[in-house]
């Protein structure tokens, strides 16, 4: 077999296994009755910096896809929103919550990565004159998954909960770093290498020394892997070296001390990598790995039973070709 043939075989196997894992995962999602109203309360964690904290749940009609944290940063002149929730309804509730804390215009809507619980609320912010901002790889990633993302969201949210939801692709892109001025308040955006996904973006608010990490930081909620476990483990020490007074996770409490906040996540990812590598060395199959890899971490994370298998699948398909 030529090197090109081996490469294609690796890609084909990885895509197949990840698709199978996603299909199995979707079958686990519970259904709840649609609730007509959604309130997105905001908590001020530092001057002019507000956080909406979402529950540790899978996407359902009952929660409107509101399962990830969002941030609002208010400058002297304008406002930035970081992540918008998993549906038009969730995004609309967030927009209305912003209006309760400031009458300044929303200038930027920033997406930390491609996952639907962070981007499908973008549609609620159209028509406000805001620029949509993301990692330079985000448009391609969203475009490639657009059909499946919307189809799955419609199934999970139901017809009423899905109404108005669509994908809005950022047009202001970050290849390395980008500074955004809100009027006397600077945000520094950094495009990160492949880790949680291949389009992770962090936001640093210099006024309060707050680092917004999106899903590069999970707390309580089990981390989810859709990029590279090797890349994520390499990136974490680099993130830990960055100075910040506090961090805001994509899933977790409204504010956490930095860098201690990320240590449990690091332990989990190291455990998955270690277990999977050992199983591969022993000649174990993916099916065997799914039963044992990471099980020592079961009691440390919510949604472990729902999502650990997906992480093991992603790690196995990456590490078996080391």
Any key phrases for this structure?
alpha/beta, Metallo-beta-lactamase, Chain A, five-stranded mixed β-sheet, 38% helix, globular
Describe this structure in words.
The protein is an alpha/beta fold. 38% of the residues lie in helices and 19% in strands. Mean pLDDT is 91; it is low at 1-12 and 19-38. It has a single domain (29-261), classed as 4-Layer Sandwich (Metallo-beta-lactamase, Chain A), CATH 3.60.15. 46% of the residues are buried. It starts with a helix and ends with a helix. The protein is built from eight helices and twelve strands. A seven-stranded mixed β-sheet has the order 1-2-3-4-5-6-7, with no helix packed on it. A five-stranded mixed β-sheet has the order 8-9-10-11-12, with no helix packed on it. It has helices at 3-26, 88-101, 116-119, 138-162, 229-240, 263-282, 286-292, 304-319, and strands at residues 43-46, 49-52, 70-74, 79-82, 106-110, 131-135, 172-174, 177-181, 186-191, 201-205, 210-218, 246-251. The protein is globular, with a radius of gyration of 19 Å.
């Amino acid at each position: 077999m030529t090197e090109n043939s081996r490469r294609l075989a690796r890609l084909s196997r990885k895509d197949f296994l990840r698709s199978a894992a996603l299909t199995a995962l979707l079958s686990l999602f519970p259904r709840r009755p649609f609730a007509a109203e959604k309130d997105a309360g905001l908590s001020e964690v530092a001057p002019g910096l507000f956080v909406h904290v979402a529950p540790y749940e899978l996407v359902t009609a009952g929660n409107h896809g509101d399962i990830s944290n969002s941030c609002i940063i208010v400058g002297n002149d304008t406002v930035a929103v970081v992540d918008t929730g998993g549906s038009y309804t969730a995004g609309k509730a967030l927009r209305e919550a912003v209006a309760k804390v400031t009458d300044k215009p929303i200038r930027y809507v920033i997406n930390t990565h491609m996952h639907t619980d962070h981007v499908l609320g973008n549609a609620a912010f159209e028509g406000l004159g805001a620029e949509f901002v993301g990692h330079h790889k985000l448009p391609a990633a969203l475009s490639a998954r657009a059909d499946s993302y919307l189809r799955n969201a419609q199934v999970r949210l139901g017809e009423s909960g899905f109404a108005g939801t669509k994908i809005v692709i950022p047009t202001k892109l970050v290849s390395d770093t980008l500074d955004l001025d809100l009027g006397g308040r600077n945000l520094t955006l950094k495009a990160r290498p492949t880790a949680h996904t291949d389009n992770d973006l962090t936001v640093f608010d210099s006024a309060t020394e707050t680092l917004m990490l999106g899903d590069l930081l999970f707390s309580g909620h089990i981390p989810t892997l859709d990029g590279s476990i090797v890349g994520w483990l390499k990136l974490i020490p680099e993130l830990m070296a960055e100075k910040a007074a506090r961090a805001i996770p994509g899933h977790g409490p409204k504010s956490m001390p930095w860098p201690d906040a990320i240590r449990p996540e690091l332990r989990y990812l190291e455990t998955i990598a270690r277990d999977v590598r050992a199983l591969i060395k022993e000649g174990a199959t993916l099916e065997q790995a799914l039963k044992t890899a990471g099980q020592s971490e079961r009691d440390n994370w919510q949604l472990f039973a729902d999502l650990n298998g997906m992480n093991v699948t992603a790690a196995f398909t990456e590490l078996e070709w080391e």
